[in-house]
From TrEMBL:
This is Rhomboid family intramembrane serine protease. It is a multi-pass membrane protein. GO terms for biological process: proteolysis. The chain crosses the membrane at residues 50-72, 84-107, 113-132, 144-162, 168-187. Gene3D superfamilies: Rhomboid-like. It is found in: Membrane. Pfam families: Rhomboid.
Length: 198
């Protein structure tokens, strides 16, 4: 296994450290760093980024960090540190915007936490850059091409977004994918950002 590139490694360490802090002061960190709905009275502008460093449990942290390692490591090597960070930020911000829109429409007052929105942006980018790469699902262990993997997960998130009334922010995941897609289009100078570079 190749060594982790620096940004991916640093983000995994930060998220793990913050999760450890959550075990000691969970209410304080959630109050200040989670993404609260705008009308809740607890919203702060920094939360559109800080929420991505919090996680709701060990499995939530594990699967997000596993995805960051699986998809983020290679994308960081391809793009370099600066562009990789820009992409992650775009995914996190787009996921936050989507979730704030959903909470505004539904009247929910629940906070949102987790790096899943940025992770879904990475997933989409991996499928766009390496569409024929084989990806193995964990449960069930089924191999499929990366582009199929992206389509399946995107469709599931859309379906669950309308069906599930639980604690998972499915539309934030979709928002992350949209943000990632738009970022790649912007870098390529494709619509809606103008003509292709010559």
């Amino acid at each position: 296994m190749p060594p982790l590139p620096p940004v991916t490694k640093t983000l995994i360490l930060i998220c793990t450290a913050v999760f450890c802090l959550q075990t000691f002061v969970p209410q304080s960190l959630t109050l200040w760093l989670a993404l609260w709905p705008v009308g809740s009275g607890l919203f702060g502008p920094w939360q559109v980024v800080s929420y991505a460093f919090l996680h709701g449990g060990l499995f939530h942290l594990f699967f997000n960090m596993l995805g960051l390692w699986m998809f983020g490591s290679e994308l960081e090597r391809v793009w370099g540190q600066k562009r990789y960070l820009q992409f992650l930020l775009a995914g996190a911000l787009a996921a936050a915007a989507a979730q704030m829109a959903v909470t505004a429409m539904t009247g929910s007052q629940n906070p949102t936490i987790g790096a899943s929105g940025a992770l879904f942006a990475l997933l989409l980018a991996f499928g766009m850059l390496f569409p024929n790469r084989q990806v193995m699902l964990l449960i069930p262990p089924i191999p499929m091409k990366a582009r199929t993997f992206v389509v399946v997960f995107g469709a599931l998130e859309l379906l669950l977004g309308f069906m599930d009334r639980g604690d998972i922010a499915h539309f934030a995941h979709l928002g992350g994918m949209v943000g990632g897609f738009l970022m790649i289009r912007y870098w390529r100078r494709q619509a809606p950002f103008g003509g292709r570079r010559r």
